[in-house]
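ABC transporter substrate-binding protein
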Amino acid sequence: MPTAIRAPQPAAGSGNTVTCLIRFALANIRRRPERFVLAVLGIALAIACVTVVRTISASFAATGEESVADVLGSAALWVVPAAGVHYDAQAGALIADGDAPEISIPGGWTATRVLSGLVDIDGEGVSLRGSDEIASGTATVGHALAERLAVVDGGTVTVGGRRLQVSVEAAGQSLTVQTALARSLVGERGWWLVNAPPGGEHRRDLGAAFGAAVGLPFTPDPAVRPDGDGAGLVYDTVGGSGPLTFEQKYSALFSGKVTSSTLGLISTIGLGLGFVIAVSSFLAAVTERRREFGIMSSIGLADEVLYFFLVESAVIFVTAYLVGVTAAGIAVAVVIPGIASVASWLQGAALTAMFLPAMAIVGALVPVHRLLQQRPVSLLGDR
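Tokens:
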């Protein structure tokens, strides 16, 4: 009796199924390449807009954290004037808007009065600070400012008509000179940096204790502004609740100015329009291929119809994401090279990627939902 020879069957498994779905999705893309290109470009444009905004936001956040860290150093408390402080974009540093509060330092506490203002050096707006810790005839310059002024360690810089020997330290954008020289240029504008008594560095109520001793309100929240009619405000940089440091909270204020601005609103609307473009593309594909999916459903492959759309959606969104973030990187490098950096672009791209899974899944489910609710016979009957 002859032996029946059966044709080899493909191995059943998730790997084989995924491969088939990918091949099926790519075949459909090749069938309608113009639809694929238009969908990718529309979504990529939206992703590029969001990535640019997120990149700028990340750059501002880094700037905010660096600027406040440059001010605080190791201080636990920051006592600012009633007029507050502001960030000067040209100087790249925080500047005091009023005179440092007149306070008497309680026993055991260590405090340093720092004068702060804006001066012009060789046509550059520079953050000038005054400290008693700086010797007469010398100036301390941050690395970033040293590069901007083209000065080196051991060189000289002219401030207020006086030639000072430069010591390049830290990474900030400020130039620190002896208090008397700073006072002659910026007056009494400035703030206090305060450290706790020995043994109390890790207390969570330093702001409350110091504020009560000097008669000033306190807060661990950098979003709180001083009362213009008051005497000043104590920022507690080590107190408060939550996992974020004072520097991180301050940086969030900078990034929030971007994401909550008109630019942030436009990017969000653009992302929504990109999603609408994707859904419209899938709706057209569903309408065009109803009979094909009816055949698949009639032979028990209804689930594969959903999986197919999920795979095709993933291919479109991943391609659009790569195109969009690349375009965003080129745009920020060409248009705003002084603001954005590679690190901020990568952070912006990562934040944008968080939207992709939900958009890809929902983008596939919306058009295919009604399709799966119909009987295969009704799908086969459509022309």
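The two ends are 50 Å apart (CA to CA).
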